[in-house]
Backbone:
């Protein structure tokens, strides 16, 4: 089932996600619905807060990077990189910071350069609740860091300069009010929910 993606301005996007256990009701269905929702919106990742649930859960599928990039040999390892991260915890980030234009399904039609470290090591549980500790680099690290931010209540716009945020103020306000045209299902904040 395709879920509505929560738009910028909804307080759930600013909440730190709660840990869940293997008995979380309907977890397998939720994960399946999140993948279906992400694919419908042509996303690379989706976090539970983006579907209205303040949980430490996010998913990624980096395959589109492998298909879109001209220098496919550099990103061939991304093909089939489809993962579920439950109760993820970043152990460290390292390497040179590099800039890349990021966007977000909750902030449609906004793309800005964001600098992030090239490698990330994290501990997490998969959909079967098996624990992993793994390092990711390049595009995979970036997608993971972006989605990890969501479960910490952080948005990619928090990483851009105050001046750029001011320049985006009207566009962000339009998103909050639902004054945008988007090809996927979204849930916009109501004035009551924005307080």
Residues:
């Amino acid at each position: 089932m395709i879920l509505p993606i929560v738009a910028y301005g909804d307080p759930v996007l600013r909440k730190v996600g709660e840990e869940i256990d293997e008995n979380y009701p309907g977890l397998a269905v939720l994960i399946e619905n999140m993948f279906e929702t992400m694919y419908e919106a042509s996303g690379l990742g989706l976090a539970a807060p983006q579907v209205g649930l303040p949980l430490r859960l996010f998913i990624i599928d980096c395959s589109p990077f492998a298909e879109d990039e001209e220098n496919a040999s550099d990103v061939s390892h991304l093909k089939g990189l489809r993962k579920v991260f439950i109760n993820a915890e970043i152990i460290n980030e390292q390497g040179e910071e590099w800039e890349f234009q990021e966007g977000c399904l909750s902030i449609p039609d906004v793309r800005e350069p964001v600098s992030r470290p090239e490698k990330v090591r994290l501990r997490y549980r998969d959909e079967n609740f098996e624990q992993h500790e793994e390092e990711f680099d390049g595009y995979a690290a970036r997608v993971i860091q972006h989605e990890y931010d969501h479960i910490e209540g952080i948005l990619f716009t928090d990483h851009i300069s105050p001046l750029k945020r001011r320049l985006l103020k009207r566009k962000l306000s339009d998103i909050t009010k639902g004054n945008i045209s988007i090809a996927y299902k979204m849930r916009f904040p109501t004035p009551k929910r924005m307080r």
About this structure: Residues 119 and 137 are 4 Å apart (CA to CA). The mean pLDDT is 92.
